[in-house]
Amino acid sequence: PDKEKKEKLADKFLESTELTTLLKNMDVDKWRMLTALTALSGMRIGEAIALHSSDIDFHNKAIQVTKTYDRLNNIVTSSIREIYMQPELERLCRQIKAYTLRQKLLYGFETELFMCDDAGKHLNYYSYNKYLSEKTLKLFSKKVTTHFMRHTHVALMAENGVSLDAISRRLGHENSKITKDIYFHVTKKMKEQDNAQFQKVNIL
Q1: How many angstroms separate the CA atoms of 78 and 70, rounded?
Q2: pLDDT beyond 90 at 93
Q3: The pLDDT of residue 197
Q4: Which of 5, 15, 109, 123 sits 20 to 30 Å CA-CA off 178?
Q5: What does the alpha-carbon distance between residue 164 and residue 41 come to, in Å, rounded to a whole number?
């Protein structure tokens, strides 16, 4: 049963090496940046798509998550929390800002969105999910959905020693079973790796 549980968990997130491989092989800039944004911030895909440029506060190194884009009804609903921008997330956000500015100049549109399509409108969730599924099926022989990036964020933070409570707050107080399972799976794996190192030590 424990082995089965590990296999099921492995189907819910990407290892850091898998994420790096995925990003390197993504040939569509906006999809690569959106994948990195959700993996590095833990935002839901609807929250990332709904972001406005004014939500990115470089001075205070914070992303204000105030809304979620509902792709089915084409409406924006409330979702409130603040995400601290660690250095690599801040660098990515600056790249996205520059990319959106270039798109605005190239296609001649105005938009308040942080990321957008070539017409300045919300990014198409279905196009992104299709691209992501096809790319990961080719790379890893498994279909990855947009929600994987939120789970991947949990794994990445756990690997870096961030507590479960801190991760849950960053996700918006989502202390779900999957969040806990992934966290404990990663920390257990790290402990096993530590023990394997200790086993090789011969001091006396």
Answers
A1: 10
A2: yes
A3: 86
A4: 123
A5: 15
Give yes or no for a contact between 179 and 185, defined as CB atoms under 8 angstroms apart.
no
Contact 35, 201 (CB under 8 A): no
| Planar angle of CA 87, 128, 26, nearest 5 degrees | 60
Q: What is the pLDDT of residue 3?
A: 59
61 DSSP 8-state letter: T
Q: Is the pLDDT of residue 199 over 90?
A: no
Q: Which two structure tokens, joined as six digits, stand for 100? A: 């959106």
| DSSP 8-state assignment for residue 69 | E
Q: pLDDT by residue (tens digit) across 142-176?
A: 999 999 999 999 999 999 999 999 999 999 876 78
Identify the residue whose tokens are 């390197």. Answer: 24
The single residue listed with the structure tokens 């792709």 is: 71
The dihedral sign for the CA sequence 179, 182, 185, 191: negative
Strand, helix or coil at 52? strand
Rounded to whole angstroms, how far apart are CA atoms 164 and 113? 31
Helix (H) or strand (E) holding 64: strand 62-70
